[in-house]
Specification:
349 residues; 9-stranded mixed beta sheet; globular; alpha+beta; Structural Genomics Hypothetical 15.5 Kd Protein In mrcA-pckA Intergenic Region, Chain A; 4-stranded antiparallel beta sheet
């Protein structure tokens, strides 16, 4: 028989290859399809016939069918776990309509992160998901240098391990992420079905994400859009950049809320969700986020003593995976943010 996996591969190994080099990243679009039958239960064989009128690559098809990122799908394929017409196939193959595809999902690996009794501000919770207001300074998931005290550690304690496992052993429940020094709302999935349904909305741009930020400089126009592709900075792998090389489409809409002497407060709406998208786009147009250590001038040094970007994920909206009703939640700007606003209004800068 040809169609048997030729390598022993754990679910943990599948996701090791897709971990970001940064400790924690801005919202990313998890590349899921909108199929409603893509519930990829681990420990099972997934079999289906290709429907590929747009001639997509195999890694894209596997990503959509199984509700995993494209890089995780590539790891499955490279591990010899995906077969087309009975034979192991390359990730670049473009299956024809009607070709049989078989996917051997690897054994799940027990989560390495430990539950920790860390206080959480939960805005909403039911049996399918939570909406959490993440404080500034908390890392979303364990990473080198931050194995404890993360949002995932807190969630494992609060939910008693009942979180989705699609995003790998160190990111249970995490549908999307925000930076350590970005505060605000995150949605967390409790089941794999909820995770895939929510993530599909990110790909389809129906997931509403609105931020508030204070940026350097006075923006003259009342509103605008930055539509520029983002990819890894070729000169610094820890940073992203506006580039045409190995990049993805990125769109950020902004609206001026208040203007001050030398600064502007903005409302920013993400149409896409790329790594560091807001920070990169605003820096590129000459209005970096206040305090941003990566993209602002002088390493983000500022007269307010702020360490880290002044950026808050204020509003999140989505269609509920069970009720199919639209839900939207808001959070107030945190104290560090409002303290700076007060000083700017008084001209104390």
């Amino acid at each position: 028989m040809h169609d048997k996996p030729n390598k022993e591969l754990s679910l943990g190994q599948v996701f090791e290859d897709e971990e970001e080099t940064l400790a924690d990243c801005e919202y990313e679009d998890e590349d899921f399809s909108s199929d409603t039958d893509r519930n990829c239960e681990r420990n099972k064989i997934i079999e289906f016939f290709a429907e590929n009128p747009s001639f997509e690559r195999l890694d894209s098809i596997v990503s959509s069918k199984c509700g995993i990122t494209r890089s995780a799908a590539a790891s499955l394929i490279n591990g010899g776990c995906v077969f087309v017409s009975g034979k192991a196939a390359a990730k670049s193959r473009r299956p024809k309509d009607g070709e049989p595809i078989k996917i051997f999902m690897p054994e799940p690996k027990e989560c390495d992160a430990k539950p920790q009794n860390i206080p959480l501000e939960i805005i909403y919770e039911d049996e399918y998901l939570l909406v959490v207001n993440k404080p500034r300074g908390m890392v979303v998931h364990p990473a080198p240098g931050n194995y404890d005290g993360t949002l995932v550690n807190a969630l494992l304690y609060h939910c008693q391990g009942k979180l989705s496992g699609i995003n790998g052993v160190i990111r249970p429940g995490i549908v999307h992420r925000i930076d350590k020094d970005t505060s605000g709302l995150l949605i967390v999935a409790k089941t794999d079905e909820a995770h895939v349904f929510l993530a599909s909305q990110i790909k389809e741009h129906s997931f509403s994400r609105i931020y508030n930020a204070i940026v350097y400089g006075v923006i003259k126009e009342d509103e605008g859009t930055v539509d520029l592709p983002i990819g890894r900075n070729p000169n610094d792998r820890k940073k992203m950049a506006v580039t045409d090389k190995n990049s993805k489409k990125a769109v950020t809409h902004y609206k001026v809320l208040e203007r001050y002497k030398g600064y502007t407060m903005l409302e920013l709406r993400l149409e896409t969700g790329r790594t560091h998208q807001i920070r990169v786009h605003m820096s590129h147009i000459g209005h970096a986020v206040l305090g941003d250590p990566l993209y602002a001038p002088n390493g983000g040094k500022n007269p307010f003593g702020l360490s880290g970007q002044c950026l808050h994920a204020k509003t999140i909206g989505f269609i509920h995976p069970a009720s199919r009703e639209y839900m939207e939640f808001m959070s107030e700007n945190p104290k560090y943010f409002t303290d700076i606003i007060e000083k700017l209004r008084k001209g104390q800068n």
